[in-house]
Task: structure prediction
Amino acid sequence: MFRSKSFGEYLDLHVVYAENLLKLRKICLDSGLEETMKWGMPTYCYEGKNVIGLGAFKNFLAIWFFQGVFLSDKKGVLRNAQKGKTKGMRSWQFEKGGKIDVRGVKGYVRESIENHKKGLKVSPSRKKTVSLPKEMKNAFKKDLKLESAFKEFTPGKQREFADHIAEAKREATRIRRLNKCIPMILSGVGLNDKYR
Result:
């Protein structure tokens, strides 16, 4: 997966959004934010902390507010990416070919910076226990070596495996996911290690 190393590279990948990306970039830079590239996407920081991110997708362009939950959202435009999972981040999405509300975005960016200065932030909640799906419990009963290898992982990595399997709605899918995870567990490779 290619990750852009500069805004120019990102722009080249998303020419259909070039005009609006440039407008959003200008708003962020004019507000005093520092431009960086994180996760291959333009990210704008204040005092080294992520405040704004830009993301171009197949059907829309989004400006992400890392602590957007604290924004007053007077225009009613902010979306939570994943209800129940995403705590602080919110996005304002613009359809392909849609116009950017420059004045509105400037207001949201200013408010985001002010909220950062006030120290408003959502800290991720830490789950203390790892809840194993029944398919994993059954596999561990049959294979003690597998259970032992699983216990070598940190609680966070254990949770990644368990959640990945448990989130599947169908039992057949949970079993298929477990079978794909077993070789990784036995070889000491975390589910998301390739992204780290």
Observations:
- The domain at 7-118 is CATH 3.90.1150.200 (Aspartate Aminotransferase, domain 1).
- The radius of gyration is 21 Å.
